[in-house]
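Class, discuss our next protein.
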Amino acid sequence: MTNWYTADTHFRYENVIRFCDRPFKSSAHMDGVMLDNMWNVVKPEDDLWIIGDFVFGVPAKDPVYLQQIFGQLPGARKHLIVGNHDSDLTQSLDWSSVSLLAEVADGPKNQRNTLCHYPMITWNHARQDALQLFGYVHNNWRGSRNSVNVGVDVWDFMPLTHDDVARRA
């Protein structure tokens, strides 16, 4: 089982294409590419962590659309770290877990890394090489030592493993 991390997908949100200079013709095109990228790496037994801002805009208020896009996510377990654009309706989907912050044991040392939608100055076990994974800032900041932006805008719209994040840290 592998943990996969991503943030700021903003499924079906047209304006994010312009705001973040995403290379897509439409939100449907963007959604298709991100889902294909996920399905290319996330295996049926894996965990997928969305670190905030899963869906945004009018579709985020449509329970049918939310259920449809959620149902297309790969992996055995899907987790949501709540972002500033994750509504109560989004949080009510059949996630394996929903929280504002989580510590996830991962990596070769099985260290407890902190997941939060927002970048942090420090976190539990930061001085023992634990990583902090965040989103929120899109392509405006990649992070600092041991605190890494896992948003789709800085990772070619791909989910990441702990090893990917550790290399950047």
User: Anything to note?
Assistant: The chain has five helices and nine strands. The first helix runs from residue 15 to 19. Strands lie at 3-6, 47-51, 77-81, 97-99, 101-106, 111-116, 132-134, 143-144, 147-149. The mean pLDDT is 95.
